[in-house]
Amino acid sequence: MRSLLFAASALSGGRPRRLLLWPLLAGLSVFVLSLVILAPALAQFEKSLTTVTEPADQSAPPPPVDSKPSYSVAVGIDDEITEMPAIQSAKVDFLSFSEEYFTQLKTGAVVDEFGTEERTLSPDGARAQVEDGTSVLAVILPKQLTPTVIDDIRAYSAGTLDRAPTYTITIVAGPQALSEDRFVVRKYEDQVMRQAGEYVSNQIRTVAGKLTCDPSGASDCPRSPSETAKAFERPFTTAVEEVSGPAPVDTFTSPSAPAEGMGQPTAQPEPTAAPTAEATDPAAASAEESSHGSPIWFGHTWVPAVLIALGFGAVTVALTASFVVNRAAGLSLVLVGPWRSMRTQRPFPRQALLSVKLLIGVVGVAVLGLVATIAVTGLGFFGVGAFPLLRILAVLCFLTLLAAVLVSIVLTVNDAVGTLFGALAAVAALIWVIAQSGATRAFSLSGSDADLGMVTELLLGQGNRWTVLSYALPTAVGLIFALVLALVVGLTATYVYDRARSTKIDLG
């Protein structure tokens, strides 16, 4: 460390902060600028796709843009993925009925009178969000639903259960959902939860028709598969639990839209003129709302936008650090290598220069990781689930690790084979971040492959512990492996070059 600080001081003429200032400012500026441009653009693109895919009603004029309120719905899940007979093939599936139920709530049927934005948390976290007014209601699924259902199916097939059990889904409703004769609860239960329940019930019925009391299939069961499947035709019941919370707000009526006309197209052109005029300004609309009428940071595209901006910022830190250090050392700024065009370096070995660049990268990565974490979590203000401090720390570690991988790879390629290839590595890194950011999944709402955006959302509380570990742990291990590999390759390559070409000096 002493020799490294000596090299940094000598390169900067006794002012090592000068080496750090420009890469840090450049990375932060690019991150902020990228986020300011990307967040509204992606939100507007998502909104345009939703508008195109929604069927147009030719029989009546469209309702005013601002006439449909949007509510947050917390979905409490404590379940685990379980092996079971495949629903649509002869193989096996690894499914969570709770996750399947949540997917149907989020992407299935919708309520005509209002919009909803579903988020998964722990059961306690979901209930707490209703009590503090963050969510209008919570849907609490039974604990360990999937393994319990599988065990009950086998037990019923074996004859140890007289009748198939039912599983209660609890609706935790606050004052807002209970107002107007339980308007929000009734509509959401009838139009959204009913469809999700039917979908998962069909899955359970299919699995019950394939499972037997003996996993090996060597013995006959007292009840046939068809009898077992019939017994599990209606596995769910619902119960409403009322909790206290903030006083309800009338979001359906306004002075210009009387209550008796709610949901009906009006014959007067004035009420629709203002919203239509605002809707013609995509930049202003997207800057304030996502495709669901919520702020941008609640939209599906916010996390992908932050990840892409983080990628741009990290790559900028790496390229700027390399430029500043190479310029201070008197190196050519554009090099093609590895060794033929890289002239002998005096008085600093290449490994010392790479170490200085990595030191600058460490500071830049720490700052970018912190800023990106604040953008994603809002330090708890954007609806982080249970144990918010731990989740914010987990997101901080994950985003910092991602930025460190990008910086180390770009610097390693830059110093091992030249700045031209370093620039190509930066472009490749950005393409990878964009592809893995979750933007495609946010637009299609159907992607199932794990990506960086999904891992970030899971760390924020949108999933049970097993799901978080199954996705976050392998991703983190892969990033750590890439980071270590890049550091080893870079330091080894520059060491080999130093032994062959650079002047050996003692840095103290």
From TrEMBL:
Composition bias, Low complexity: 265-291
Domain of life: Bacteria
Designated name of the protein: ABC-2 type transport system permease protein
Organism: Brevibacterium metallidurans
Keywords carried by this UniProt record: Membrane, Transmembrane, Transmembrane helix
TM spans (from-to): 305-337, 358-383, 389-410, 417-435, 471-497
Region of interest: Disordered: 213-291
